[in-house]
Design a protein that fits this description.
By secondary structure, the protein is of the alpha+beta class. Helices cover about 60% and strands about 10% of the residues. It has helices at about 5-10, 20-30, 35-45, 50-75, 80-90, 100-115, 125-135, 155-160, 165-180, 215-225, 240-260, 260-275; strands at about 140, 165, 185-190, 190-200, 200-205, 215. The strands form 2 sheets. The protein has a 4-stranded antiparallel sheet. Strands 1-2 form a two-stranded parallel sheet.
Length: about 280
């Protein structure tokens, strides 16, 4: 469709006939996400608040469709790229966010961290040094004051403020560890996302939310007993990148519900339904 035709459609968004407006909205939506830049230009050029409001609604709907498309593509073809999955999560709140806005600060952190690490170090020594740099030099920490803030699930915000929740702090720690070729993976522990350092049969666990506290399988046993939960393998073994993204989305749903923003919570639930094959059996 030509730009002039799209402009003509936008003008009709202020038509007095609701059927005409509804038809125009359907027509614009049918064009797909490629029309977003044009709609943004039209929003900037018009001084009609009604048309601006309609354009904002259309852009949000189209961006949400784009978000769902990106998530499905990631799940089916790119789930080995955790950073991309976390970038897609962040674009829900920051639709103009570019992947490099996450990649560049992570690269900077990696180069600084690399200077302090040595391949000759034993596993526990590596984590001791990693923790020293991550928490004392980089100053990453738990956001206990605003634990349910949606920003805690947005990697760009966490990289900027250095404050996050268990999943986002673990994600940054994990991404840096992967760049260092450390055998560190996520673990889906109930109520707390953690990491494991695992080489063959040797393993220990890292609580990033508690400044990288190192603990053992016995500690997990005790934790599960305190919650009166069965000792399932998933509470000890590495999880997938998809599991990490699903957990981030569940955290985001809780955050929006705590704020009373049920519309956004419902939108994130729709994404979760598309990504989680077990969603309806939970």
């Amino acid at each position: 469709m030509k730009d002039s035709e799209i402009k003509a459609l936008v003008v009709l968004l202020d038509d007095e006939d609701h059927e005409v407006v509804s038809h125009v909205e359907e027509k614009i939506m049918s064009i797909g996400t490629s029309v977003i830049p044009m709609l943004e230009q039209e929003w900037e050029s018009t001084f009609n608040p009604i048309i601006q409001g309609k354009i904002e609604d259309l852009i949000h709907e189209l961006q949400f469709e784009l978000l769902k498309e990106r998530f499905i593509e990631w799940k089916e073809n790119e789930s080995d790229d955790l950073l991309k999955g976390l970038w897609i999560v962040a674009t829900y709140q920051y639709p103009d966010l570019e992947p490099d806005e996450l990649r560049q600060p992570l690269d900077q952190l990696y180069h600084e961290l690399w200077r302090h690490m040595s391949e000759e170090m034993a596993p526990y020594d590596r984590i001791r040094v990693f923790n020293e740099v991550f928490f004392n030099k980089f100053r990453f920490r738990a956001n206990t004051k605003n634990f349910h803030s949606p920003a805690n699930s947005m990697l760009n915000a966490v990289l900027e403020t250095r404050k996050g929740n268990p999943i986002s702090l673990c994600a940054i720690y994990l991404l840096l560890a992967q760049k260092m070729d450390l055998p560190i993976y996520g673990v889906n522990l109930p109520n707390l996302f953690i990491l494991t350092y695992k080489i063959g049969e040797e393993s220990f666990y890292i609580n990033v939310f508690n400044r990288g506290l190192v603990f053992t399988r016995d500690d997990i046993d005790n934790y599960l007993e305190s919650l009166q939960l069965d000792k399932k393998d998933i509470f000890y073994e590495p999880c997938s990148n998809l599991d990490i993204i699903l957990r981030a989305l569940r955290n985001l749903i809780v955050s929006f519900e705590k704020l009373g923003d049920y519309h956004k919570a419902d939108e994130v639930k729709l994404i979760l339904q598309k990504l989680d094959d077990q969603y309806f059996s939970l």
